[in-house]
Amino acid sequence: MTQPHELEALAVDIAREAGELARVRRTQGVAIAATKSAIADIVTEADREVEALIRARLRAERPGDGFLGEESGAERGTTDLTWVVDPIDGTVNYAYGIPAYAVSIAVVTGEPDPESWRAVAAAVFSPAAGELFQAAANGGATLNGDRLAVNAEPTAAGALLATGFGYDPSTHAGDLARVARVMPLARDLRRIGAASLDFAYVASGRLDGYFERGLQPWDHAAGALLVTEAGGRVGGVGSGGGRPGRAMSVAAGPGLFDALLAAAIGD
Ligand code: IPD
Ligand code: CA
């Protein structure tokens, strides 16, 4: 089995190349290619081109591994590894010219199912900021080479939190009720617009915590490993805090996690 740090190095190399392509395409203008689950859920030509680049590089370098990508779907591999890819996380930011977007690449073992997989390595690259977050299982997490650590406890002023709202308007009332439950824990609330960066910012102590309903596997696969490797906790619904997933995803330092999860799921 390939070592986690070798898979991490490949994820980083591909994320950098993919992020540079996204950045260049952004300077050339952005065309919306289609809408997906809802009219607000868009895909640009760049999302598709960047995912194709990532998939082609993985096929060339790791032909036996599986693939699960936001834009081009799933393919089973012959090894125990699957690459979980969001080519541009924060597509609406990208389309509007807000620099908070990222390439998110994780490699996991086991069934390609976030309920049971184990993340081995991850890279989240924010090309507009020139920031590369990376992690390997049991190897720690870094930002541009500097070791990351979550905030163990929020300050007395409360937690700096982030959340997100899905594209489906029918979920917004529930999302806003959740915000009302969580606000007593907060000093303030951010909506950055890219889940992978929300997780990365928890990992780096820029946020104390993050919660969101409705995430897809490629939204949390890489970011969740960044948080746990930076000493934080991730979870969702289910026994023992569960796992991040569509029903709920929460990430925070150890001093905040239980209270944030309970408020987010309405316990
Ligand atoms: C979205 C972003 C956003 C989150 C949505 C995601 P996309 O991913 O991560 O912050 O609120 O749930 O779908 O569509 O930009 O790849
Ligand atoms: Ca995306």
TrEMBL record:
Binding, Mg(2+): 70, 86, 88-89, 219
Keywords: Hydrolase, Magnesium, Metal-binding
Gene3D superfamilies noted in UniProt: 3.40.190.80, Fructose-1,6-Bisphosphatase, subunit A, domain 1
InterPro entries: IMPase (IPR033942), Inositol_monoP_metal-BS (IPR020583), Inositol_monophosphatase-like (IPR000760), Inositol_monophosphatase_CS (IPR020550)
BP GO terms, sorted: inositol metabolic process; phosphatidylinositol phosphate biosynthetic process; signal transduction
SUPFAM superfamilies: Carbohydrate phosphatase (SSF56655)
Catalytic reaction list: a myo-inositol phosphate + H2O = myo-inositol + phosphate
Entry cofactors: Mg(2+)
Its EC number(s): 3.1.3.25
Domain of life, source organism: Bacteria
GO MF annotation list: inositol monophosphate 1-phosphatase activity; metal ion binding
Keyword presence, Heme: no
Keyword presence, Nuclease: no
Cited PANTHER family: INOSITOL MONOPHOSPHATASE, INOSITOL-1-MONOPHOSPHATASE-RELATED
Family assignment from sequence similarity: Belongs to the inositol monophosphatase superfamily.
Name of this protein: Inositol-1-monophosphatase
